[in-house]
Amino acid sequence: MTEPGERRRGTTSPAPRGRAVRDARDAAQRAADGLGELVRHRLEGVSAVCRSDDDGWIVNVDVLELARIPDTTSLLATYEVELDPAGDLLQYRRIARYRRGAQDQ
Questions:
Q1: Which of 5, 13, 24, 92 could disulfide-link to 49, CB 3.0 to 4.6 Å?
Q2: pLDDT for 45-56, tens place per residue?
Q3: CA-to-CA distance for 84 and 105, rounded, in angstroms?
Q4: Whole-number Å distance between alpha carbons of 55 and 67
Q5: DSSP letters of 75-90?
Q6: Is the peptide bond before 85 cis (omega within 30 degrees of 0)?
Q7: Alpha helix locations (H) across the chain?
Q8: What is the sign of the dihedral through the CA atoms of 11, 17, 21 and 27?
Q9: pTM exceeds 0.70, yes or no
């Protein structure tokens, strides 16, 4: 077990700390990498990227939470991930949970 603020052995950071986010693609990659480390579910993709009011980024990441057979009954979730201007993860929260085969409402 690691102490707070200490990295586990064998983990790598996707980007050096302090390097500013270049563009929306970079923000999406950093948000997906950070969320993947925390929730430990398979990532399905990024469904939205936008600037926040403080020049950071808000990224919606879709995640497979529960695989089922048939695949259309699997449970997915959308997480909203907030990054600061340097690309560090500030917070995340699940904003939706749905069946893969469900129609948009």
A1: 24
A2: 999 999 999 999
A3: 31
A4: 36
A5: EEEEEEEEE-TTS-EE
A6: no
A7: 24-39
A8: positive
A9: yes
